[in-house]
Write a structure and sequence with these properties.
The complex is a heterodimer of chains A (about 180) and B (about 170). With about 180 residues, chain A is mainly α. Helix content of chain A is about 35%, strand content about 5%. Chain A is elongated. Chain B is globular, with a radius of gyration of 19 Å. Classes of the chains: A mainly alpha (about 180), B alpha/beta (about 170).
Chain lengths: ~180, ~170
Amino acid sequence: MAVTPPPQRGTLISRAGSPAEATEADLRALESNILTTTVDRVVSWARRNSLWPAQFGLACCAIEMIATAQARFDIARFGSEAFRASPRQADLMIVSGRVSQKMAPVVKHIYEQMLDPKWVIAMGDCASCGGVFNNYALVQGVDKLIPVDVYVAGCPPRPEALLYGFLKLQELITQPSRRRR
Amino acid sequence: MTRPEDVLVQRLGEVVVGQIRFRDEVTLVVAPERILQALGAAREMGFRLLTDLTAVDRYPAQPRFDVVYLLTSVEPPARMRLMVHLAADQTAPSATSLWPGANWLEREAFDLFGIRFDGHPDLRRILMPDDWEGHPLRKDYPLVEEPVEFQGHTPKVPSQIIPTSKPKHA
């Protein structure tokens, strides 16, 4: 009775009965099915393409954020249409509008409730730096409370601007070392 | 046709200590201790809606504060204002007995101007954080602003860059 030796490490198991019979075509088919990458890249690719924003709006910028989610601008093209009302299910915080002194602890609370990894977009001038409201009522930029990854300028920014900031955030996620915290 | 606010002026008589007419709008000035009587009479006359209750700080003029009641009559359609002058340490009676909705409006006037309303059921801050110090819409409240980073501008604080105008009543 003929005994087939166990395949050695590194040898190709093909439709051919023995390694010696593997054809050129077999080798090419194998090469086109293997992808080499790093775990970091795969993970950040997955994170980047399914960001789930927290569903809350603070002021007029929220109207533009809502428009961004709707059919005309359609943030679903970038895998981010699932706005979640619970911060536990969200990994992106779009601070859409001015942050008042009274709202500040609430915003910080929502951010702390979100699970890592998490990102923040400061949408509009008020969220970025206080905008025109340099007074007692408003926090002068949400980065005094929480770390911000992308600032979107505008008063309010158009949905295209928010989407551009969103794409910039996706770039940032693919290169975690560029992130300032 | 007699206008409802003119009827009210007649009915109130000497309760009204002043009248301001500007572009067909009537503002009646009433002494603080008579304001509830005036508001009640206006309410009976058909000004059933308290549109707004707000205040004005005329610092450094005296008396310092105005409390303004904006009233609306739906039928017949009319609008008018009632006004009370208050010194800095004076209080106004609460209008919550006539309009429960005055509750939050008076809380707002208290929060931002520090005006106290006697008989208010729950006079707490409403807009600013509970532990806030001072009343931000008072004229002598400091402008808590941060320096801006405009290039080539000194000073850097906005209110020092913008030329100030003198208050009219000074």
